[in-house]
Model the fold of this input.
Amino acid sequence: MAPLVVSHISMRRALIIGASIIVLFGGALTAYYYFFANTPSLSVAPSTSLPSAAGNESQTLTNGNDNPAVPAATKVTARLVKISQGPVVPGVVVVDMVASSSTDVDVRFIERQSGNIFSYLVHEEALTRTSNRTLPGIAEAHWLPSGQTVFVRYLSGDTLSTINTYGLMADGSSGFFLPQDLVGIAVSSTSILALASGANGSVASLMHTDGTRASTLFSSPLSSLRVLLGGKDQYFAFTKPAQSLLGDLFLIDKAGNFSRLAGPLPGLVALASPSGKEVLVSYMADGVMRMALVNTATRAVTRLPVATIADKCVWAADDSAVYCGIPTAPSREYSYPDDWYQGAIPFNDRIWRISVGGRYAQLVLDFSLANSGLLDATALATDRAGTALIFVNKNDGSLWSYQL
Done:
């Protein structure tokens, strides 16, 4: 009888496991439809042609100047290329290049270990080093849209307590310092918005892109702010994000006057569109990440059916869409965005495109299908024509290009 008892137990166990799978699948399917179907202002569209895991044979590309000291990029699929093994400095720029009758997309970035500047032509698939100037220890980079100058930020001093901001030419030929201990900067093609902070609050200054002609834009009793540029004579600031703190987003006019656009919301992070007409905001609600669009003219708020931290997104040049790295299964055990900024928790992202005018969200890239491991997307960038999406994988600091 013992074999019969074992058989019955095995059969019962198999039925329980099968039922559990059905329940889990049904629950996941229900959650999926509830999440999207109950968001009337936006819908989910069919995905684009995603890279297939089958037949993904990596191909090493040649570097543009045939210099063996310059590492070559790796083509993972026909549309997905690992530009650099990394780690690279967060902050890249994508420049539209026109040579004779052809156009290309030039991705410029800085290698973290050496501080050397590199250029990668997306369509030509060529990687070159434009500067071998050694500047190790760079924490972040802010590029002018032209790609000719990059403002690098790093710590110095015996205790690494001094924040330096240095304007470096892309060819490494020369440079200049901005004032020390700036807590943040934002750059456009015509100006730099620099923020200093202390015990008495914050002071923001506008200056030319060569660091000259600085003038005060605003003074605020708030000492923990981040600043953004968006549109002509239009600026934004939001309180530094933390889940335990209620954050606000402010619109600032050219006279330095503040008006609240969103908040107070826990963990608020903002990303202004190129025209400044819309602002993408992310925040926490009941321990869950949320994301919405705020119209700066009407103050209308449109909640989005997908959610991430706004720093994991980039706007299309014409304001028509936002590309974001969306975590597949963020855990409620962590505090967002705090733990993500501190590196305590990595995400496993897919890249989504959110259409502003069309009111739908569309899956663009499932990184895992290319057998490339887990993706935690940050420092996203795209060209003006919307032909290429560039991003850094925060998990290992590698730099990637995906042709849209």
In short: The chain is about 10% helix and 45% strand. The chain has one domain: 39-403. Residues 1-43 have pLDDT under 50 and may be disordered. The radius of gyration is 23 Å.
